[in-house]
Input
Amino acid sequence: MVDPNQCDNIHNFDISNPEKYDYFVIGGSHSAEARRQLVKEHPTTYFFKYAECKIYVGLIVDEAKLLAWDHNNDNDYRQKMSSIERIRFFHYEYLDALQRYGQKLHPGLRRQCLNEEGIVIDDSVKSDGLRKYEPWFQLAFRDGIVWDLQDQIFTMWENKEVKGQKVRKGKIDPQMEAKGIKGKNTDYTIEEAAEDMKLTPWRALQGIKDETLLVSVLSRVISKELSLDDMVLELSK
Output
């Protein structure tokens, strides 16, 4: 929350220079600590070094207290992994397993990945019960140049740079009205955000073992010659 002595109305907030304000942190301490630990474990993984922050302007003391309380008690403030975050998380679990167990893929890795994400799969569930998650693993359990190209496209998606990509409008505080804190500033629009990446076009990569083909098509997506839908058509030829 912006120090109200510096700015008490969202329409006076200088969005081009948010660093000039002082802030009170009213939620997210546990997430910040988790990210600090992940950075230590994966120092070259850039997305663990950053976190989405919501900036609130003009809250009264009681509103700020209610918001802080809700961060610890309401699922509305518990953000699920995006598609890209999930794929990357599974990928680094895959790399860790290779280091621990050698080149042979650890048979329980899929179940372990899901359990660590919070999707509890009981040991009694047969492998068929994991089938709906297989598209995630097909992307995550790649390495070498194909993974590097995939990951570059994921970064482009996060930066809204993929050809044909749709974006959505962002809101400065989307939960405020839902929580009964109906401020006069809830309709203030901020920068457009990337929609969560759909897995559908990426299913076209499943089963393709021709690395030369994959490298060629993924490189054309990176150069913005192809959209993800175009990628499907190229891989289906």
Remarks:
- The two ends are 53 Å apart (CA to CA).
- The CA atoms of residues 28 and 71 lie 7 Å apart.
- The beta strands are 167-171, 189-194.
